[in-house]
Amino acid sequence: MSALVCLVADKNMEAVFSALLDKRRRPALGIGDFQVEIQVHPQRDPGCYHTGPEWLQGILDERDARGLLVFDQAWDGNPHSSALETEGVVRQRFDSLGIGGRAEVVVIEPELEVWVWSASPHVDEVFGWGGVDPPLRQWLRQQGLWPPGYPKPPDPKAAVESVLRRRRIPRSSSLYRRLAARVSLQGCRDPAFNRLRRLLIGWFASQGIDAG
């Protein structure tokens, strides 16, 4: 099976996954060659949760492909308290629909923006903060958006939006694409990203890569 259909919650996720799964980026993930198609659910995160499994079933019943469902944990009305719990329920639905062996889910906690805040200097550049004083992370601490001792801002989306307002940069999916294309993937400790990476290696490992 050498094709992947991704169903994601919004245009920003589409941009991130388009960059991550670009053929030039795949060696950094340890994955090889496969076809990829990315679709966006019109009802965003709740739509992915409520009807995403059936959406993928309709595709996978007709194609020799893998299916990947990706959405945020943080949305109004989510009945589950953690991403792992949300994923577990979705996997049960995959099984009941007969696609459990071909479909998987990754829920990002709390939301996609948590992947933005890596230690890479490219983050500062994309946000127009290169050479600005005070440095970006210091400014976020001064604003109370990144408390000392925290590996990431507690509200990663609020941190992104504050930086964009400060630099007068419009929020757009192209910004997320540039971040995903440039920021190093090595050393990322986010649980959802690492689950995604292991999953992709398990499905599409390049020659010589061990999925374990």
Molecular structure report:
This protein has 212 residues and is α/β, with parallel strands linked by helices. The chain folds into two domains: 3-113 and 177-204, Rossmann fold, CATH 3.40.50; 116-172, no CATH class. It is built from nine helices and four strands; from the N terminus they run βααβαβαβααααα. The protein has helices spanning 11-20, 26-29, 44-60, 83-97, 121-126, 136-142, 156-167, 173-182, 191-204, and strands spanning 3-8, 35-40, 66-72, 103-108. It has a four-stranded parallel sheet with strand order 2-1-3-4, with helices on both faces. Helix 4 (83-97) links the parallel strand 3 and strand 4. It is globular, with a radius of gyration of 18 Å. The relative contact order is 0.18.
Write the layout of secondary structure elements.
Layout: E1 3-8, H1 11-20, H2 26-29, E2 35-40, H3 44-60, E3 66-72, H4 83-97, E4 103-108, H5 121-126, H6 136-142, H7 156-167, H8 173-182, H9 191-204
Parallel strand pairs: 1-2, 1-3, 3-4
Helix pairs in contact: 1-8, 3-4
Query: Runs with pLDDT <50, length 5+?
Result: 208-212
- Ends: how far apart? 20 Å
Shape: globular
Strand order of the largest sheet: 2-1-3-4
Structural class of the secondary elements? alpha/beta
Report strand %: 5-15%
- Percent helix range: 40-55%
Summary tags:
212 residues, 2 domains, 4 strands, 45% helix, globular
Brief sketch in words of this structure:
The chain is of the alpha/beta class and 212 residues long. It folds into two domains: 3-113 and 177-204, Rossmann fold (3-Layer(aba) Sandwich); 116-172, no CATH class.
